[in-house]
Prior knowledge:
mainly beta; 2 helices; 19 strands; 56% strand
Amino acid sequence: MQTNLPRPVRTTTTLVVAFLCWFYSLIAAADTTFPGDFFLFPALKIDYISSGSQPGKDSINYQPEIGLFYSYKEGSLLALVEYFLNNDENEFERLQIGWTDNKNTTAWLGRFHNPLGYWSSAQHHGTYLQTSISRPSIAEFSDDGGIMPIHVTGALFEFRAPLQGGSNLFLDIAIGASPTMENGKLEPANIWRYGATKSHENLTLRARYIPDFTSDTQLGLFTGYTRMEGDSVRTDEIEQIQAGAFGVWDNNPFKLLGAVFFIDSTLTLPGSTKSDGNFASGYLQAEYAIDHRFTAYGRFEDTSDVGSDPYLALFPLFVDNREMLGLRYDVVRNHAFTLEVRNDQIASSDVTHIVFQWSALLP
């Protein structure tokens, strides 16, 4: 048995998380008027990992983390900031300024979550807000091995069309700079030194139908085009078309949510040769609220053409199949304990995770 995280890193991150929580408690206790809305999302994960292909190589991973979320609105002007810190990263996940007509139109500039499907925009780095501990692999953030362009820097337009009976139709349009392939993962465009990385264009369209706002029930379609700079070793450039559908059925105590992605990619390899491929990936998650404290859930994920698609070959740690069960216990207001057991298939190898998590929303 081994831990796969150096003690100094665990200690430093834990101290930072503890300090931020303490500092925020002082602000709250002072009862001062703070402009806008400010929230902290601390969490601690303890992940027992067992690999069937490497018996005796079991490990335990400790990961403290914290997300800082701030939003501000003054008349028609908007601002949104999300900063995330854990053992492996610390960066601004979202940094946006915007304008709204206070009715049906909102426009944003900055770094935002690409509206590809449901999970990328509905569930951000505030771990407490999602029922499960893990995200679907196709919707994973790039720092955690994600393969989709989740972070885009540019302009995001959100339109709402009210329909009869209280239902609404939403259209989201994202135009901006794509991530690049660096060190085996997708790296978003640098918001502080724009042009430091050779980003190309990204365009995403998403339409959603929401029958009412009393639940999370919705149906949606999305499509996107992304051109990404390669790492100049395995590929020089990647052109990709994404398309798919998603849906949420929210009827307390039951909830179902799922999505399917169809990805078509063309890779320009060193020497200017082309390699084409396509695959499909999807997930279905079911949740059942046993009572106001306990929620049981499970999720199944699967991906096609894993062994033959050249784009997937760039991400050898991508989870192409997952079976997962979990139980969440909301112990007190804004604090939850979650236990999750999942089996991940990565390149024909099975990896079992047993994860315990404490997560919270402050205040």
